[in-house]
Description:
The protein is 18% helix and 27% strand. The chain has 644 residues and is an alpha/beta fold. Strands 13, 14, 15, 16, 17, 18, 19 and 20 form an eight-stranded mixed beta sheet that branches. The longest helix is centred in the last third of the chain and has 18 residues, at 429-446. It is globular, with a radius of gyration of 25 Å. One of its GO terms (biological process) is proteolysis. The active site is at 63 (charge relay system), 121 (charge relay system), 430 (charge relay system). One of its GO terms (molecular function) is serine-type endopeptidase activity.
Amino acid sequence: HICVPCNMNFETRPLFSMECVVSIFPSRTRQLLTTRSWDFLGFPKTAKRSLELEGDVIVGMLDTGVWPDSPSFSDEGFGPPPSRWKGACLNFTCNKYIIGARAYNHGSSTAGLSPVDTDGHGTHTASTVAGRAVGNISLGGLAAGTARGAVPGARLAIYKVCSDDGCSDADMLAAFDDAVADGVDLISFSIGDDLPAQYFEDAAAIGSFHAMKAGVLTSAAAGNSGLESGRVCNVAPWILSVAASSTDRRLVDKLVLGNGKTIVGASINIFPELKDVPFVFPINGSCEAESLAVAGRSYKGKILLCALPSNGSGPVTVGAAGAVIGTDQPDIAFSLPLPAVMVSQAQFTRIMAYVNRTRNPVGTILASESAFDSEAPIVASFSSPGPNMITPSILKPDLSAPGIDILAAWSPLSPVSGRSVAYSIDSGTSMACPHATGAAAYVKSFHPDWSPAMIMSALITTATPMNSSRNRGGGELTYGAGQLNPVRAPDPGLVYDAREGDYVRMLCAQGYNSTQLQLVTDSDDAAPCRGGRRGSAADLNYPTMAVHAAPGKNFSAHFPRTVTNVGVPGSVYVAKLVSSRPELVRVAVSPRRLVFSQLGQRLSFTVTVSGVLGGANEFVSAAVVWSDGDRHVRSPVIVHTVDV
Length: 644
C-alpha cells in the first residue's frame, strides 16, 4: 500500500518485483490516543509573540477532522494564507484560519469524503495547537475558564485520516505526502499503536521521514499503553514523541456512603446529584451488558458496583441510576453516559466492605468538581513508557506535556453524556501531543529556518525536569527530558542538529540494508551502508542518551555530540554533570568547556557513561548540562538494566 506508481503505468506483476515498491506490509489500523494547561506550563496569553510571524506557520493535523464552526477557529482579523500554500479544501468550506481540509479512505482523498469531525478528537487537538482564546467556556459548568491554543495566529490544515474504525496506514501515508506537498511547516499526529514497530514497517515513521526531508517536524503521541514497560510508540528519532502528564487542576467526583464516609474518585460527571440510591453488586462484578442480562436480576434505579472496568453502557442498558467503577487508572476522569465515579481497587474494596456489613446500603454520587493538585506534574498512568525497543540508545518518550483533563473545542456531532457540547474534556497522549506541536510552532515562528531536529532539540533541552520520586518507577523512561517549557524553548542557547544523512547512517548502524534505505529515502545518502565501519546508533547527534546495561556487568558507552550556537556570539559554555547514583554510574565529558566566537558555530564533545548496575530493572538518571550563566542546555543521560 505504500507504492506510488513511478511512471503511472500500472502493471500486472507481483508488487514485490516493482521498482517503486519499498516494502510490503499489511495496512494496519491505528488508534487515536486520546485550559488550565497552558497557564500551568507558564505560557500565558501575554507571552512574547508576533501574530504576523505566527500567521506564516502552517500546522497539519492528521486526525478525525475538525468542526469548522467552533469559535476557536474564527478567522476574524486574519489576512490571506501564506503565498506558498498549495493545499485544497475538498468537500469543505475553509476560511483564513483553516486553510486546507481533506478526508481519506483507502489512501485516497477523493471528493465526497467530508473532513468534518464527527468524533470530537480532531477538533480538540486542533484547538489545543492553535485555537483562538474563547472565554467563559466549560463542560456543563466544569473546568470553567478560557480555552486557547499555543499559537492563535497560526494556520491549520486538516487531514482526516481516522474514522470510527480507527486510522489506516494507507490513509496516513497519503496524508503525510499531501501535507508536505501542500506546504505545512509541522505535523501533529495524535495517533499510535500498542507496541512500537520497526521503522520501515511503520507508516508514521515512513511518512514522517519524508516530512523531515522537506523540513517538516512531526510531533506525535507516545501511546496509551502505560501499564507495561517498553510500550512507547512513535519512537523514530526524527519524530518528537510526547508523554502525558497532569496539571495542578484535577477533576474529582465524590461518593458519599450511607454511613457518612466520603470516597474521592474521578469522573467527568455533569449530571445532577444522585442521592441515597441503593447499591447492588452484579454477579462476577462485571457491568458489561451481556453479563448483566444473563444474570437475570433487576438493576433499575440502583447504583451498580462494577469491580471490572466499564464504559457505562451496560448499566445504562439495564436502567441503572448510576455506577461505581473500579479501575487501575484512578488518575483519569472519563465522561460516562450516567452518573458515575471511578475509584481505585483499594477504594472499591472499602466500599464493598460497607455494602457487605450494611442491611440497606445506599450511596450519593455528587457532581464532579475541580481540585488543586500540588503534586503535579505527574506522568499519567496510561502514558506509554520506555525503554525504546527499536533504538535503545535514544531516550523515548522525548518529553511530557499536559494530557489529563484537558478542556478544548469539540464537535457537537459527538455527544458527551448525552449532550451536544461545543467544548469538552478529554485525556490521553493525544492531548499531550498538540501541546508539544503548539510549542514547536511557537519556536518555528521565531526561527523559520530551523531544521526539525533543531526545533526538537530546543524543546527537549529546555524541558523542566520532573520529580522522579512523585512519578512511577523509571523516571525519564516515563516522561523523557521533563515537562514542556514553551517560554524557554525559542532561546535554547545551543541545539543538536541532525539531517537526513545522519538518520540514514544511524539506520545503517541498526542493520538496515543500503538498497532498502535508498529506495525509501530516494537519496544517495544510503552510501554509508556499503561496507566499512557502520558505527553505532549512539553516534546520532541526539539531545538525549540512553544505555541498556546487563545486570552485574561493567559497561561503557560513548556518545559523540555536536552543538550549534544559536544564543549569542562570544559565549562560553561549561559542562555540569549530574547523576542520581554517582557511585554506580560515572558520566564524563570531553572537553568540559566550549568557547564560541560566533553564531552558527559548531563544536563537538564526547560523553562517556560507565559503571555497573547490580539488579534487574535498575535505573539511574543523569544529565549533562551546558551553561553560559544565562542559558542551561540539559541533556538527560539514563542507564537501565535489561535481562540478557
